[in-house]
Task: inverse folding
């Protein structure tokens, strides 16, 4: 087996989500905290920034460049690498010299603020390409020529320039014709991003959304397979805490499911965060402990320490309750439903078994009955209290709806029609909330209502 080149890994944050961008103040605050989280790279790649993709040829306005300059200066002060990504839009034609000139003009702006790593992304671009056929080979050769051309041109301005490429196919280690040819043609100074190296497990495959983009694991063995197939270390674009369909959803699972040797097997790891900047911090704290020592990393203990660092000793108690229920579930790694007794078996037995099940659910929900009042008495940093109040109210409302169903079922069978109406209204309100509950909790409430005969339309 080939040996791995010994290069230091990049570790950090990629602002690569869709929707409203972080504020300038959010980014400055992040850069200040990154050294404590063992992070050394921040990539700006806001997906709905009009100058990032469809406006690839348009220079950033002066005010935007002034802010980028401030970020670059703060990053340098914190010994963090600052980088701006670009994703040439579908109308970019590399054979046209005018297009190459326009893109180089844009990249030169990034050089002027001190960037040395230049991400050029092809993910999410729709093109009629068969990655395992001739069109995939042609696509790879065209993209590699673009990347190599700009690496050479950037090197004339910034001798330390490196390019980070996200291919059009970026969620697999399979030896497609496209990926094999792309890796073969790319200059060795180019790093290549990958979102997944492992086959999804059965549970992840049952989810509604693509498990290859939000993987349950990124294993040592998968990273080694990537290197064996393509001769390069994968650069992990990690969506553990973020998904395109879950903006503003609180996801407080600690960082986990990642191999304990990725610090040497990967060229880098960047975490794609949630849209609300502050709520990422407990997760970033756990990832920071992993980056510091993957072999000694303990997810649950890391989350406990990180919540205390963000919310204070008093606030961390409420934080742990939120972390138990607001979990990163799209990858199939954790599900809030796992906090509750099995619904199907609990409702399928006789009267005695059902009543025992309902009492068990009520015991599990007991902390949620007092969560809102407890939160209101908790001293924590004011910004955190403002951010978390919506999530506390959502969880408390869900717990109340669940508790009322259990209480009514213990008192009367079948449930009265008005109880079903209340459950339906509660579920509709929770499903429509902007700061959303995990789908598994909403599904559990719907399943409980149907199973108790309260309503058959939830």
Result:
């Amino acid at each position: 087996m080939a040996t791995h080149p010994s290069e230091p890994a990049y570790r950090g944050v990629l602002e690569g989500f869709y929707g409203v961008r972080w504020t300038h103040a959010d980014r400055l605050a992040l850069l200040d905290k990154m050294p404590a989280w063992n992070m050394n790279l921040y990539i700006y790649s806001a997906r709905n920034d009009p100058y990032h993709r469809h406006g690839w040829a348009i220079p950033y306005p002066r005010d935007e460049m002034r802010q980028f300059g401030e970020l670059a200066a703060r990053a340098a002060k914190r010994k963090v690498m600052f980088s701006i990504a670009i994703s040439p839009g579908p109308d970019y034609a590399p054979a046209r010299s005018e297009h190459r000139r326009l893109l180089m003009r844009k990249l030169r702006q990034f050089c002027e603020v001190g960037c040395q790593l230049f991400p050029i992304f092809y993910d999410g671009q729709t093109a009629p390409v068969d990655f395992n056929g001739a069109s995939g080979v042609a696509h790879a050769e065209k993209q590699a020529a673009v990347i190599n051309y700009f690496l050479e041109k950037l090197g004339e301005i910034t001798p330390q320039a490196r390019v980070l490429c996200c291919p059009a196919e970026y969620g697999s280690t399979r030896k497609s014709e496209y990926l094999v040819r792309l890796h073969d043609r790319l200059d060795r100074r180019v790093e290549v991003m990958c979102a997944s190296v492992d086959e999804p497990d059965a549970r992840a495959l049952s989810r509604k959304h693509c498990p290859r983009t939000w993987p349950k694991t990124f294993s040592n063995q998968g990273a080694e397979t990537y290197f064996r197939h393509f001769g390069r270390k994968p650069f992990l674009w990690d969506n553990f805490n973020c998904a395109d369909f879950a903006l503003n959803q609180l996801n407080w699972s600690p960082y986990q499911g990642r191999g304990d040797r990725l610090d040497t097997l990967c060229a880098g790891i960047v975490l794609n965060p949630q849209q609300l900047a502050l709520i990422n911090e407990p997760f970033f704290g756990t990832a920071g402990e992993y980056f510091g020592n993957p072999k000694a990393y303990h997810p649950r203990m890391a989350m406990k320490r990180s919540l205390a660092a963000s919310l204070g000793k008093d606030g961390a108690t409420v934080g742990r309750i939120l972390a138990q229920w607001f979990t990163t579930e799209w990858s199939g790694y954790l599900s809030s439903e796992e906090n509750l007794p099995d619904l199907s078996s609990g409702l399928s037995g006789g009267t005695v078994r059902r009543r025992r099940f309902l009492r068990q659910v009520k015991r599990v929900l007991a902390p949620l009955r007092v969560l809102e009042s407890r939160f209101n008495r908790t001293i924590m940093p004011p910004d955190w209290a403002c951010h978390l109040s919506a999530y506390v109210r959502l969880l408390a409302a869900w717990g109340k709806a669940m508790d009322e169903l259990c209480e009514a079922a213990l008192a009367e069978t079948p449930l009265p029609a008005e109880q079903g109406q209340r459950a339906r209204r509660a579920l509709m309100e929770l499903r429509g909330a902007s700061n959303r509950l995990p789908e598994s909790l909403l599904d559990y409430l719907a399943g409980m209502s149907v199973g108790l005969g309260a309503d058959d339309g939830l």
Remarks:
- The first helix runs from residue 24 to 33.
- The chain has two domains: 10-298, 338-451.
